[in-house]
Design brief:
The complex is a heterodimer of chains A (about 400) and B (about 325).
Chain A lengths: L2 E4 L9 E7 L6 E2 L4 E6 L4 E5 L4 E4 L8 E3 L3 E6 L7 H6 L8 H7 L10 H4 L5 H10 L17 H10 L12 H16 L2 E9 L1 H18 L5 H13 L8 E3 L2 E3 L6 E7 L2 E7 L7 H16 L13 E5 L18 E5 L3 E7 L2 E15 L5 H16 L11
Parallel strand pairs in A: 12-14, 14-15
Antiparallel strand pairs in A: 1-8, 2-4, 2-7, 3-6, 4-5, 6-8, 9-17, 10-11, 12-13, 15-17, 16-17
Helix pairs in contact in A: 4-5, 8-9, 8-10
Chain B lengths: L11 E3 H15 L3 E5 L15 H5 L4 E3 L4 H13 L3 E6 L9 H8 L2 H4 L9 E6 L15 H4 L5 E3 L4 H13 L4 E6 L6 E3 L13 E4 L4 E5 L2 H15 L4 E5 L2 E3 L3 H11 L2 E8 L4 H13 L8 E5 L8 H6 L4 H12 L1
Parallel strand pairs in B: 2-3, 2-4, 4-5, 5-7, 6-7, 10-11, 10-13, 13-14
Antiparallel strand pairs in B: 1-8, 6-12, 9-11
Classes of the chains: A alpha+beta (about 400), B alpha/beta (about 325).
Amino acid sequence: MATSVVMPALEMAQETGTVVSWLKQEGDPVAKGEPLLEIETDKATVEVEANADGVLAGVTAGEGAEVPVGQTIAWIVAPGEEPPAEEAAMATGRAMSTAPAEAASSPEPAAPRPATASRRGKISPKARRLAAEHGVDLDDVQGTGPDGAITGDDVLAAARSAGEATASAPPPSAVARLMAERTTESWTRAPHFFLVREVDAGALDAHREALKPAIQNRHGVKLTHTDLLVALAARVLARHPKMNASWEGQGIRANESINVGVAMAVEDGVVAAVVPDADTAGLGDVAVRRRDMAERARAGRLLPSDVAGGTFTISNLGMYGIDAFTAIIVPPQAGILAVGKIADRVVPVDGRPGVRPMMTVTLSSDHRVVDGAQAAAFLNDLAEAIGDPGAHGLATND
Amino acid sequence: MSMPETETAVRQLTLGDAIREALAEEMRRDPRVLILGEDIAEAGTVFKVLTGLVDEFGPDRVLDTPISEPGFTGIAVGAAMTGLRPVVDIMFGDFIGLTMDQMVNQAAKIHYMSGGKWKVPMVMRTTMGATRRSAAQHSQSLHAWFCHVPGLKVVLPSTPHDAKGLMKSAIRDENPVAFFEDKMMYKLKGPVPEDDYTIPLGAADVKREGEDITIVATSSMVQVALGAAARLADGGISAEVVDPRTLWPLDETTILESVRKTSRAIVMDEGYGRYGVMAEIASVIAEQAFFDLEAPVKRIGAMHVPIPFSPPLEDATVPTEQTVCEAAEAMCG
């Protein structure tokens, strides 16, 4: 019996999904639970598993197709079985299952399809590549090369005359599109203000060195400065609920849990992967969670749930050698902490010049939710916590 | 007010004189360099390229040998292995068949088979090129034979300037190098600096920039390609001429950059097209720049026949500017 494969809904508000790639081809045997295809929502790329044993057939959504949630995009059938006909008829003219029958019953061998292929003359390899890149149908291109061959210039001219100013740029991925929308929304709607603090990271360094072996042993991960900052910021946020609140259209909404997002670079943008309940999570758990998400982010395998529900975000560009920077708030959050690199600087130590590992942190805040004094109080407490992590709930036996 | 141009005129030398200058400078610089071959001392070679060298360096370093290419090539391999830097003169490239065991089985292999303990820093100078009315046994361009063998470097200069710099690099190279001079270019004049300059082996040179089609050409075919490019420009086709200068090592990067820019390629060489230098360069382009091509790569080389003695027939076997222009016009459409 044929089982339909439908575009799944991975999150509440999702209306459509895009097929990134089919991991199985039509005619391939598939086993229930095997990865079948990759789809992309506006938040993440996920693999969809086969929901039955059988043979993949009747694929109606090709790679790149954007399909409403719930629509049938393929069938899993028994070997030799045809996918249900009415679904095949809805496909974009492929009608694979009916073609052989037609050919058998039709007395004349004439091709049922218009002879577009034979109308075409020569097409250069460059023209074929450019046509694929620009989405130009070669049937619509007039060749001007030797013997009427279609050249790359002909394809580019066709792409231009198609009136698509953006024809030369491939459509952005969901991540890139979302990043563009969210940052524009935040930067234009949320009144940002910025507070800068230079902190001595000596104690943070020492704390990390002290905890590293135990966490490596118990959790199998390398503790990073970011992990410590996530845990510290969450614990300080518990005492500053306004900094952990959100602007919701007409007013401020307090958030019950403290979920700290960590900005992570992915292939064509940035996402904030969330450590939930970071104020109560142990350091080891924070480190494990962050590393797991970082690895999946690199592989393009973050789940929608990984990037949902953040209440505050930390962006650390220290590893890129950045001294200090300002970050754009992730809406609807109230704040984001931009962390620069730890560098040896000459600073006054007990009234004399001394060399200390210094770090500049910059807090971006949404003035609709917090005012300068409230944000300053939070940043001040955070600076103190960074100066003495042991006294702020990050015990070495964590 | 107009000022007379301060012309820092670079000397004009013939290609033959440029090669002689390179050899003389290297012999003065390094006492281990010597030349051996047939009729090279008093006669200064049949092409008069080495005239005068024996007077400066004496018969011990400019050594006339018996007519035995296998013998003196073998001597040179041994001399190179034991510390000298010999330059072997093989009068006609047609004779390299006689030296094949020394070059292919000895010179090219010894560094490898000794685990790097031995090296063979020698240069074989020889000639190529037709239209000298020398018939089938003295007119061939057989450089592709050496290109096929790992362990040998192969150099084909196209101008006096390149000939001097490449010859000096070839002599200083720690590996056996085959250096092919087109005998029809010995009288070609061009600017040659007096400085002690070298041109690295493995660096192509864009001899003329263009937008519409790339002509990859070697040795005297570079001159033909430049002539064709000038004519094509009159007809509105902008041709780029790329001279690999060394066939091994081959500067694929420069060739591919040019082809990716122009999307069309002609490959020219005076050797035979079948299984030859052009075939190799054409496949480099096809393998790595296929999706940048507007047209199939075109090979233009010697006609696949023994070189005829009859002058009109001989001329017909060699590519001309006309051949190149017709091919380029057909490809650009």
